[in-house]
Design a protein that fits this description.
The protein has 179 residues and is mostly helical. It contains 9 helices and 2 strands; from the N terminus they run ααααααααββα. The protein has a two-stranded antiparallel sheet with strand order 1-2. Keywords: Hydrolase.
Amino acid sequence: MDSDQLRYPIGKFQAQDSYTPTEVKSNIQIISALPSKFINLLGAWDDDKLNTPYRPDGWTVRQLVHHVADSHINAYTRCRLAMTEDNPTIKPYEEQLWAELPDAKMAQVELSIQLLRYVHLRWVLLLNSMDENDLARTYVHPATGRVTRLDEVIASYAWHSEHHYQHAYRLAARNNWQS
């Protein structure tokens, strides 16, 4: 398997110009399902499996799960900012450095899965409450100056959810770890 397939198991995110209500609803469902999917896949994994990189020179599954929690907490906050301010400039973070912090390397995966579970409950409530005007609200990323609509944010985090789930799922499949 080539390195691009290991790095991008479902391909790279491709933003659309617009999203239908059906696409938005489907993307919210993908976000909603992620914590349960991680629980079902990783629930019985021991430290050896959790400390296995999902690809050569990649994060361990432990770091990956902690990264998803970090990323989705930031996404939830960014959505709330966009809902309450006009085109706010978000605060970026150094995800690679966050993945190297001690808690990302040592903490139990269960902590981040439970964090994801509860953040996603709140986030999905917010996302499901959005109407067409809310979905058109935006924020700005200061590093790029790019303005992003919330319907695209939802699509990108649906992709992000499945992207990282597939990293762990396909590692399990390659190593015959599935029960």
